[in-house]
Amino acid sequence: MSTGLLIQYVVVGLIVVAAVLVALRKLAPQVTSRWLAAASIRLGRPGRSRLAHALARRLQPKQATGSCADGCSTCGACGPKPPTAVRDAVYPLQFSPRPKQHGR
Fold first, then answer.
1. Where do the DSSP E strands lie in 1-104?
2. Cα-flanking dihedrals φ and ψ of residue 29, to 5°?
3. In terms of pLDDT, which residue wins out, 62 or 27?
């Protein structure tokens, strides 16, 4: 196996892992939040390096405030938002007959 092919496999593997992580964050936010919290606790233990502590602070999931203003939309109590702009409004199609041509 050549070095170029190995690098290609590593890059494609990293792209696939990143895509899976993004999909998990979108489809299972509570599960990934628990995973991030567990990783943050493990990295933030005393005796770890500064880099590990910085990464632990970065991985800590954001806490929900319990109000509708935090934008978590996990409880479904906020409900759907009405359209805010005219461009979002739906207008029915209106058909009109073609004008008659003179001379035909």
1. none
2. -65, -30
3. 27
Contact 62, 36 (CB under 8 A): no
Tokens of 33: 């939040």
Closest CA to 61 of 25, 9, 102, 23: 25
Nearest in space to 33 (alpha carbons), one of 66, 41, 96? 41
Distance between CA 9 and CA 12 in Å, rounded? Answer: 5
Residue 9: the pLDDT is: 97
**Could you read off the pLDDT of 45-74 as tens digits, one per residue?**
999 999 999 999 998 887 655 566 555 555
> Which among 64, 79, 76 is positioned nearest to 30, based on CA atoms?
64
Residues 6+ apart with CB under 8 A from 70: 64
